[in-house]
Design brief:
Radius of gyration: 27 Å
Helix content: 40-55%
Distance between the termini: 54 Å
Structural class: alpha+beta
Number of strands: 18
Strand order of the largest sheet: 1-11-12-13-16-10-9-4
CATH class of the largest domain: Alpha Beta
Oligomer: single chain
Number of domains: 2
CATH topology of the largest domain: BirA Bifunctional Protein, domain 2
CATH superfamily of the largest domain: Bira Bifunctional Protein, Domain 2
Number of helices: 13
Strand content: 15-25%
RNA sequence: GGAGGCGUCGCCUAGUCCGGUCGAUGGCGCCCGCCUGCUAAGCGGGUUGAGGGUAAACCCCUCUCGCGAGUUCAAAUCUCGCCGCCUCCGCCA
């Protein structure tokens, strides 16, 4: 949610952000009008209410005729108070609903434009040259089937398209990767968390995901939503609280399954586990002061790179363009790993600085140096997900269909340094 | 699923039966000051959060006793619904 005071005093800042995101600025004027209504109706109610309270006090003291006379007046006043209060509540609710439709501001440093207007910040490692090595790389699904690691067919049989089983070394690799992620996070002061994956509407809405709710699974009774990332329960964790960030960021590492409908992506990435309805992820989540947020964002990015380095992958870091930020993000960096059979970089991690946008919606505050309450900043970033297996399998494959295991993962596959094809 | 109990400004707590000096009591903790070689103790004061009047300070006002609705001139207090926690029973793992 955008600060109402900022919107009132500097509506052009908000309009500029909307324009950079490629959205209409009409909503700004609607919200401003609603804000005016809200404040005037609150003032009307409050002055009547003050009068009513004053009279009520006199009634308590008065006796006889004087009392009857007072009661005559207070009766009509009572109805007016009720009516103006209802009007004020309504105006407040309308303002709230409209202003929740506004996305976050955007960083001046974020590149302006759409999905393809990202800026490459850094390239790390070199994509393997399979032509030079003299063999045609197999894609991750073919490798996964050879190794007995991925079973898409049976996933589809029991749950439909975009579902899968990870089995054998596939299951071990994923568990290893996630455990490695948790271990790294804990080393860096994160509190590990295994979160609920079903959340209430206000939590899903508070994180800004309900606007794009085509992608969210919804349960009818009771009304609950399956989370697409543990960012959602971790943001909701401190909802309606005043937390202490005076000693630096409060950091959580969430381990959860994630669910996405992928409603708008028919026909895209239909093969293998690149884009699936359910996957597992370890997500970093930080609460900190607004002043500390940009520095914390860089730290989260650093920890993502550290994990990717452990997987021995070639990847690049991109600064996401304003049109591709999502509702809550003020700035976003993605790490994209090279996927040999696609000849392309694909997103493996994403870290967002949501500034105080989610915190305003979820009512999460801290006390500043002067003891005043202020919304915190929230940030998130990926430490490992199922999709990483795609890049790991393809990057480390050998001509015979075996796959070399990155050193960091070997303890999790029984110490093996190579995974061999199995007979089906 | 059934029955009962509970929910007060960080924590504990008085108040709720019998509506109006509750515009909320006291303690603990915390903050400021005084006192004191230092510390502790003692003494005095402060200490829920939000919104509006204002751009801000001071100040003033309104809301806030789990949430919402109702009764009433007036609700922490009475009524109804909901949520959460606890205890017991049933059922399932």
């Amino acid at each position: 949610m955008i600060d109402a005071k900022l919107l009132r005093e500097n509506p052009d800042v908000v309009r500029a952000a909307l324009t950079k995101r490629g959205e209409s600025t009409d909503l700004v004027d609607q919200v401003l009008a609603a804000d005016g209504d809200r404040r005037s109706s609150i003032a009307a109610f409050e002055s009547l209410r003050a009068e009513q309270k004053g009279l009520g006090k006199q009634v308590a003291q008065a006796k006889g005729d004087e009392r009857t006379a007072l009661l005559e007046r207070t009766k009509t006043l009572s109805a007016e108070v009720k009516a103006t209060e209802a009007a004020a509540n309504e105006a407040e609710a309308r303002f709230d609903e409209l202003s929740r439709g506004l996305p976050n501001l955007v960083s001046d440093e974020a590149p302006v434009g759409g999905e393809k207007d990202f800026v490459v910040v850094e390239e790390i490692g070199k994509p393997r040259d399979f032509a030079a090595e003299g063999f045609e790389p197999r894609d991750h699904l073919e490798l996964g089937e050879l190794l007995g690691a991925i079973d898409m067919e049976r996933g589809a049989k029991i749950s439909g398209a975009r579902f899968y089983f990870l089995k054998g070394v596939g299951a071990l690799l994923q568990l290893g990767m996630l455990q490695l992620a948790i271990a790294q996070a804990v080393e860096n002061g994160f509190t590990p968390m295994i979160t609920p994956t079903l959340v209430k509407p206000e939590v899903m809405g508070g994180t800004g995901y309900l606007n794009a709710h085509d992608d969210v699974y919804r349960l009818e009774e009771p009304e609950l939503y399956l989370v697409g990332t543990s960012e959602v329960p971790l943001a909701g964790y401190h909802m309606d609280e005043i937390i202490d960030v005076s000693n630096g960021p409060v950091r959580y590492a969430g381990w959860s399954s994630c669910y996405r409908r992928e409603a708008g992506s028919h026909g895209k990435d239909t093969r293998g586990i690149i884009r699936v309805h359910q996957f597992d992820k370890v997500e970093m989540f930080s609460y900190c002061s607004l002043e500390d947020a940009e520095a914390e964002h860089q730290r989260l990015l650093g920890w993502e790179k550290e994990m990717l380095d452990k997987m021995e992958l070639a990847y690049r870091v991109i600064d996401t363009a304003t049109g591709d930020l999502g509702t809550s993000a003020y700035r976003k960096f993605d790490c994209e790993a090279w996927v040999p059979t696609q000849g392309a970089y694909r997103e493996l991690t994403s870290t967002s600085n949501c500034t105080d946008y989610q915190a305003r919606r979820l009512n999460i505050r801290h006390r500043d140096a002067e003891g005043r309450t202020r919304p915190v900043a929230t940030l998130n970033g990926t430490l490992a997900t199922t999709r990483w297996l795609v890049a790991i399998l393809e990057t480390h494959q050998q001509a015979d269909g075996s796959v070399r295991v990155p050193a960091a993962l070997r303890p999790y596959v029984g110490g093996r340094d190579v995974l061999e094809p199995v007979a089906r």
